[in-house]
Design a protein that fits this description.
The chain is an alpha/beta fold. The protein contains 17 helices and 16 strands. The N and C termini lie far apart (55 Å).
Length: 424
């Protein structure tokens, strides 16, 4: 059986195989094809059907034997089916995906000036949706036009949509625009899904602007593409359930809190319960430095330690699907905060000062030092976290509370035979 798959130039960031596995049992692969190999790839027909992504959504048009009315109107194809004679049929399922993304995030469109960053195939689809939803005006900003001077002329924008790849993994942290030039914004949408929170979305969150990332759109368009591949209808509710499942699988769970609050122990148990790999950033710092943390402080100073800590966080948090225990002072550098939030949810693990472990912790050597650290860091822990959980009971109780609050299925351990006999 020929596989289905995703056609693109660089696909290391893709979640598509994971998503299509939820919608059907057909084989699904990633087809990374250079621009000069596109014609040969499409002519070889070594596939049963395709999703199409950057930079080929317009490039595949001439190869299609026919287009759906929507794909023809928009001039962009992101799904291709193959008939029994080898004919290629082009569809645009991104339209359905983007509409679903806007609806689920409740982002307003009607009557607003909508600014679209990027002029590629995805941009054409976004513009069609915005027009159909009654946008008052739609302005497309190409790469060349994306200058502070030009953007300042669009200050009345009510909705901003990023369709460019700026900020996509592995170039996490890059941002296509500075939102301060759009004081009237009522919503921000970013079609990028990896990282889960782009620099653009983090900027919107900081400004209190409603926003949405591209995961829902990705899943919704894949659902419609899968229907075309299989010739069956799938329930609309599957979009939300599959998106939630993929988010859980691909997101990081990050633990912040005071030194000695139990982040490493709790994180290790969460990793075992969820099947995610566990990363202790302090342990990674020790590995890179080749010496224990107290020696780094004593020999190189706290500034050198903090710089190394930021480098470790940048490398670790660029990837998803992990449980990460951070050092107690990771929140003290402003540049670390978006790193923590970009690819997951942050849990503030709280513990009374009297219960904090102090051994081997350079900044927690005395009770007064601990109190001062707590006073200065508490607002930072609270501001960066999505969830606060008290770690005063057993480790398993704490882990259960975290996973339950984050929406993860919690496995209840079977009691031992001795326990069962005792309870009879």
């Amino acid at each position: 059986m020929k596989p289905y798959g995703l056609l693109g130039e660089k696909l290391g960031h893709s979640f598509s195989p994971l998503i299509h596995a939820r919608f059907g049992s057909y084989p699904y692969e990633l087809f990374e094809v250079p621009k000069d190999g596109l014609t040969a790839f499409l002519q070889a027909r070594a596939f049963a059907g395709l999703n199409v992504t950057i930079p080929y959504k317009k490039a595949v048009l001439p190869f299609c034997d026919d287009l759906s009315p929507l794909a023809s109107r928009i001039g962009s194809v992101n799904t291709v089916t193959v008939d029994e004679n080898g004919g290629l049929h082009g569809y645009n399922t991104d339209y359905f995906g983007f509409r679903r993304m806007l609806a689920e995030a409740d982002l307003p469109v009607a009557g607003l000036h909508c600014v679209v960053i990027g002029a590629g195939g995805a941009s054409a689809t976004v513009c069609a949706v915005l027009e159909d939803l009654g946008a008052g005006r739609v302005t497309v900003v190409s790469h060349r036009e994306n200058t502070p001077e030009y953007l300042s002329t669009l200050s009345d924008a009510g909705l901003l949509v990023n369709t460019s790849p700026v900020g996509m993994y592995p170039k996490n942290g890059e941002c296509p625009v500075d939102l301060s030039v759009f004081p009237a914004l009522r919503g921000v949408a970013d079609l990028i899904f990896n990282p889960l929170r782009t620099a653009l979305l983090l900027q919107a969150e900081e400004r209190g602007i409603p926003c949405a990332g591209g995961l829902t759109m990705l899943v919704a368009q894949a659902k419609q593409a899968s229907e075309l591949f299989q010739g069956v209808a799938l329930p609309d509710a599957s979009v939300s359930s599959v998106a939630a499942e993929i988010r859980r699988q691909c997101e990081n769970i990050l633990l912040v809190g005071m030194p000695g609050s139990g982040k490493s122990v709790v994180g290790g148990v969460i990793a075992r319960r969820t099947g995610k790999p566990f990363v202790d950033t302090d342990a990674e710092i020790v590995r890179r430095a080749g010496k224990p943390i107290p020696e780094i402080f004593a020999q190189d100073g706290e500034d050198a330690f903090r710089q190394l800590e930021t480098e470790v966080l940048r490398d670790v948090t660029a990837k998803g699907g992990q449980v990460v225990a951070t050092g107690g002072g990771a929140v003290t550098r402003p540049e670390n905060l978006p790193l923590l939030r970009q690819n997951g949810r942050v849990v503030f693990l709280e513990r009374p000062l009297r219960l904090l472990a102090r051994h081997g912790r350079p900044l927690s050597s005395s009770e007064d030092a601990v109190r001062e650290l707590y006073r200065t860091r508490l607002p930072l822990y609270r501001s960066v976290s999505d969830l606060r959980v008290s770690n005063t009971r057993s480790v398993h109780d704490t882990v259960r509370a975290i996973l339950d609050a984050l929406g993860y299925p919690v496995t209840i351990r079977a009691k031992s035979s001795g326990q069962r006999r005792k309870n009879r």
